[in-house]
């Protein structure tokens, strides 16, 4: 049985992502490492503090020690730490938003990036730009920061959180060919936002797990070829 270790900086995505794994990779053992202090420290600092980066790398190492075949980094705010850690860890690290960013960059010219935190918005925009450059494409990114939505959710006001995201999506839709949801936890609103804006909406959880599946299949082929 293959093992995937998912590293989380918060609680919100663990259960929805478990359901995606049960659908797409039912025979894979999924192990979760959750440290919900991480995103709090990132939000407080407005960047990734060195302590957060060190803890994340340690969690990736823990995943390797647990026997993971692949590590899934589930937080877009810290994806650039995963890039650097890939040089230190002996197994593949998949970023949950990598496939989403690649698809957006390959398919659309004007892309609105929707997020509730600047610390998630900015790295997601950089990732899309990086994927576009790798594909030899030029893209225009539209800032879709839903100010106040993160605080509303943390304050126990999920309806206000959703309203602010919807209003932001409607505001930026006219400037974009598609909308990208920078946070995996927003995926539950994908259909609602698409219906409200009339634009394609991309979210990361399913595409991220599909990429994990592709990596596991590649590792299996390489293992068979080596025998």
The structural class is alpha/beta
How many beta strands in the DSSP annotation? 8
From the spread of the alpha carbons, the general shape counts as globular
**Alpha-carbon Rg, integer:** 17 Å
Give the CA-CA distance, first to last residue.
18 Å
Count up the helices. 10
Seen as an oligomer or otherwise, the chain set is single chain
Tell me about the largest β-sheet: 4 strands, parallel
- As laid out across the biggest beta sheet, the strand order is 2-1-3-4
Number of domains: 2
Q: Classify the fold: give the CATH topology of the largest domain.
A: Rossmann fold
Low-confidence stretches: none
Strand portion, in percent?
Answer: 15-25%
What proportion of the residues is helical, as a percent range? 40-55%
Indicate the CATH architecture of the largest domain.
3-Layer(aba) Sandwich
The first-level CATH class of the largest domain is given as Alpha Beta
Order of helices and strands: EHEHHEHEHEHEHHEHEH
Average pLDDT confidence is 94
Protein name: Asp/Glu/hydantoin racemase
InterPro entries: Asp/Glu/hydantoin_racemase, Iso_Racemase_Enz_sf
GO molecular function, one term: amino-acid racemase activity
Family: Belongs to the HyuE racemase family.
């Amino acid at each position: 049985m293959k093992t995937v270790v998912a590293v989380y900086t918060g609680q919100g995505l663990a259960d929805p992502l478990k359901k995606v794994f049960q659908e797409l990779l039912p025979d894979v053992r999924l192990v979760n490492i959750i440290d919900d202090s991480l995103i709090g420290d990132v939000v407080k600092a407005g960047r990734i503090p060195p302590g957060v980066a060190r803890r994340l790398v340690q969690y990736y190492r823990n995943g390797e020690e647990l026997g993971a075949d692949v590590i899934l980094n589930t937080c877009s705010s810290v994806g650039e730490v995963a890039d650097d850690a890939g040089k230190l860890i002996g197994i593949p690290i998949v970023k949950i938003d990598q496939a989403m960013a690649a698809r957006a960059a390959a398919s659309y010219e004007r892309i609105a990036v929707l997020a509730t935190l600047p610390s998630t918005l900015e790295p997601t925009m950089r990732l899309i730009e990086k994927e576009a450059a790798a594909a030899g494409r030029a893209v225009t990114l539209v800032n879709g920061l839903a100010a106040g939505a993160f605080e509303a959710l943390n304050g126990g006001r999920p309806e206000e959180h959703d309203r602010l995201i919807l209003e932001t999506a409607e505001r930026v839709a006219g400037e974009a060919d598609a909308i990208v949801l920078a946070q995996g936890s927003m995926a539950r609103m994908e259909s609602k936002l698409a219906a409200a804006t009339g634009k394609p909406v991309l979210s990361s959880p399913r595409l991220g797990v599909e990429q994990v599946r592709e990596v596991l299949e590649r590792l299996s082929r390489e293992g068979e070829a080596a025998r």
